[in-house]
Design goal:
Layout lengths: L1 E5 L6 H10 L8 E5 L3 E6 L2 H10 L1
Antiparallel strand pairs: 1-3, 2-3
């Protein structure tokens, strides 16, 4: 499953990584993060954790 996370000044890539870790998702352990200009695409087979992380973002 791949989910897009919007990035802003307050919600940057470093904040996203901390957020993912709080939902038991870690790079490169069980997810992959691809950064673009204003979004991050996160892929993981842990769909429940990823969906929860996206909803809480």
């Amino acid at each position: 499953m791949t989910v897009t996370f919007p990035l802003t000044e307050k919600r940057d890539a470093e904040t996203l990584l901390k957020h993912l870790t709080s939902h038991n998702l870690s790079v490169p352990g069980n997810c992959v993060v691809s950064l673009k200009a204003h979004v991050a695409q996160v892929s993981s087979s842990h769909t429940t954790a990823l969906g929860t992380a996206r909803t809480a973002w």
